[in-house]
Amino acid sequence: NAGVTQTPKFRVLKTGQSMTLLCAQDMNHEYMYWYRQDPGMGLRLIHYSVGEGTTAKGEVPDGYNVSRLKKQNFLLGLESAAPSQTSVYFCASSLGDTTYEQYFGPGTRLTVT
Amino acid sequence: GNSVTQMEGPVTLSEEAFLTINCTYTATGYPSLFWYVQYPGEGLQLLLKATKADDKGSNKGFEATYRKETTSFHLEKGSVQVSDSAVYFCALRALNAGNMLTFGGGTRLMVKP
Questions:
Q1: Is A42 an interface residue toward B (CB < 8 Å)?
Q2: I want to staple B36 with a disulfide (CB 3.0 to 4.6 A). Which of A76, B24, B44, B73 is the partner?
Q3: Bridge partners of B107?
């Protein structure tokens, strides 16, 4: 049981490049989330999904897109990376609205130069 | 809107010292409150939670009491260990926010032998 895994762990992009971050969970969770973590600001929700085929905007969605084609995977895309998107990205999942615990992946450190 | 304010770190303590990390919140109604811990190089883990006023959450020697009158959820531990060195995040889940969490900025704790 791996829990929540994220790929890649580190990435450096140049401004304007695109990339996709992959999140996978093996706990059969319905809900999945993408956060970004910036110094002194805690975690801020980018997008989330309440089930396969659904996505919704969080607090800071601009510049990002997401897809949930399979229940176990949640992809975060940056179409044209900007230096302001330099951050640590965390994926999380939860069983649903009957429990509030979110399980987090180890994070992806992204630098945009 | 909803918000969480934590004391800024880093907090540096000697082993076996008493720990308090302050957390106050702003939210409508009665949110659920959480403390998450992030060890170096890892994702966040739920440490403890409280879902109604006067509830006390506890885990691994850490405690926090939900104080509605002061809108606070301070984290305490009677005797810290070097292994407690981590970043601690206070978070809330508002009644009208589905399963979305609002995080504080995090407090880094460093425990010296």
A1: yes
A2: B44
A3: B88
CA B95 to chain centroid, in Å, comes to 19
**Tokens representing A81?**
């990376």
Per the listing, tokens 């006023």 go with B53
For B83-96, b/e burial (b = at least 16 CB within 10 A) is ebbbbbbbbbbbee
The residue among A44, A19, A26, A20 whose CA lies nearest residue A34 is: A44
Q: A43 and B89: CB-CB below 8 Å?
A: yes
**CA separation for the pair B99, A96 (Å, rounded):** 8
**Per-residue pLDDT tens for A21-49?**
999 999 999 999 999 999 878 899 999 99
Please tell me the predicted confidence (pLDDT) of residue B76: 98
Asked whether residue B20 carries a pLDDT value surpassing 60, the answer given is yes
Task: Decide if A109 contacts A9 (C-beta within 8 A).
Answer: yes
CA distance A14 to chain B (A): 24
Read off the tokens for B93: 């889940």
Alpha carbons within 13 A on the beta-carbon side of B65: 5
> CB under 8 Å to A83, separation ≥6 — which residues?
A15, A112, A113
